[in-house]
TrEMBL record:
Belongs to the class-II pyridine nucleotide-disulfide oxidoreductase family. InterPro entries: FAD/NAD-bd_sf, FAD/NAD-binding_dom, Ferredoxin-NADP_redctase_2, Pyr_nucl-diS_OxRdtase_2_AS. This is Thioredoxin reductase. PANTHER family: THIOREDOXIN REDUCTASE 1-RELATED-RELATED. GO terms for molecular function: thioredoxin-disulfide reductase (NADPH) activity. Its EC number is 1.8.1.9. The keyword RNA-binding does not apply. Residues 4-333 form the FAD/NAD(P)-binding domain. It comes from Thalassoglobus neptunius.
Length: 348
């Protein structure tokens, strides 16, 4: 028998969709993604991008410190009576994702740890094929497969991930390890300009390392970065190596001139931010759903999560090249579940 709703992906978008769909008695099946080394290395593991990070300081509801100290005495007493004592330091990415997963399962979400490798949206019910060879039929589908950050692919980048190497200034820029320290951004597009500008609020100085002699960013973004007194551009340069040690993490970068291969320079820095774009996890959907030129799924109705195929919805980073935050992914996950619920009610 066909599933009422199948959710592909187990990041904040997928689990939020699952919580809403399960509470609406749609008995969702969440296909979480396969636990393989390749998926980890690519940055698209089960539980999503937050599974590969440390602290999450900007997801509402998880303040650091002793929660009871924030509460009015009567509410704190009540809370202790109902829930027991609470001492909690913020939340880590993996912990936040496990909590979302458990919340979805508690309401009856079923899960399977496979990748979806092929789909057929031309017939009803829809057909999904998984990496273990299973075929699943679905009346509606929510695609929440996220997007993975691009890195240069250096071994040293990999070694210091979460120890000074990041691909998200908005997520990590305000962390203590980056405050009042020199930072390096690699890239030359709008994201690199935006990330550098943002990081200049926290770092003592921001170096943009760019392989050409002009940016490909829009004029207005490039000018803003060039006028920022805290930003210095290293033109015609590529990152040769991220420098660091096991104790301190990133301590700098070695750059190499694109004009003179023998010319290198070491720049001291405690953070290295890759701003060279993202790749949406939509390879298996090519030819099945409309995408933009970068491969992001297109929403076909403003402020709805409908895709180009009726009954298939998209939530989270897979359809969002702009905000790319856990809370926005969760928000569109909620929207997708409500959209799917309405779609299914019209089928009855
Ligand atoms: P993702 O979290 O990317 O999840 C995608 C899911 O789809 C994964 O479960 C994956 O396994 C699955 N999947 C992919 N392909 C398939 C397939 N073919 N079949 C089945 N499953 C598949 N945001 C914040 O708000 N705060 C932060 O502090 C923060 N820190 C970050 C730190 C890092 C290092 C990174 C990389 C990102 C960070 N972000 C942060 C961004 C945030 O993680 C993303 O915006 C958010 O996770 C997007 O959620 P999503 O559900 O759309 O996709």
């Amino acid at each position: 028998m066909a599933e009422k709703v199948v959710i592909i992906g187990s990041g904040p978008a997928g689990w939020t969709a699952a919580i809403y769909a399960a509470r609406a008695s749609l008995e969702p099946l969440c296909i979480e993604g396969e636990m393989t080394q390749e998926n980890w290395d690519l940055g698209r593991p089960p539980l999503g991008q937050l599974a590969i990070t440390t602290e999450v300081e900007n997801f509402p509801g998880f303040p650091s410190g002793n929660l009871e100290s924030y509460l009015d005495d009567a509410i704190a007493d009540d809370r202790r009576r109902i829930m027991g004592p609470h001492q909690k330091e913020g939340v880590s990415g993996p912990e936040l994702m496990e909590l979302m997963r458990q919340q979805a399962i508690n309401f009856g979400t079923r899960t399977m740890m496979e990748d979806v490798v092929d789909v057929d949206f031309s017939q009803r019910p829809f057909i999904l094929k998984t990496s273990n060879g299973e075929t699943i039929e679905a009346q509606s589908v929510i695609v929440a497969t996220g997007a993975r950050a691009n890195y240069l692919g250096l071994d040293s980048e990999k070694k210091f991930k979460n120890a000074g190497v990041s691909a998200c200034a908005v997520c990590d820029g305000a962390l203590p390890r980056f405050r009042d320290q020199p930072l390096v951004v690699v890239g030359g597009g709008d994201s690199a300009m935006e990330e550098s500008d943002y990081l200049s609020k926290f770092g003592s100085k921001v170096y943009i390392v760019h392989r050409r002699e002009e940016f490909r960013a829009s004029k207005v973004m490039a000018e803003r970065a060039l006028k920022n007194p805290k930003i210095e551009v290293k033109w015609n340069s590529v990152i040769d190596e991220v420098l660091g040690d096991d104790e301190k993490g990133v301590t700098g970068v070695r750059i190499r001139s694109t004009e003179d291969d023998a010319k290198t320079e070491d720049i001291p820095a405690s953070g290295y931010f890759a701003a060279i774009g993202h790749t949406p996890n939509t390879e298996f959907l090519k030819g099945h759903l409309e995408m933009n030129e970068k491969g992001y799924l297109k929403w076909s109705v403003p402020f709805r999560t409908n895709t180009s195929v009726e009954g298939v919805f998209a939530a989270g980073d897979v359809a969002d090249d702009y905000y790319r935050q856990a809370i926005t992914a969760a928000g569109t996950g909620c929207m997708a579940a409500l959209d799917a619920e309405r779609y299914l009610s019209l089928l009855e």
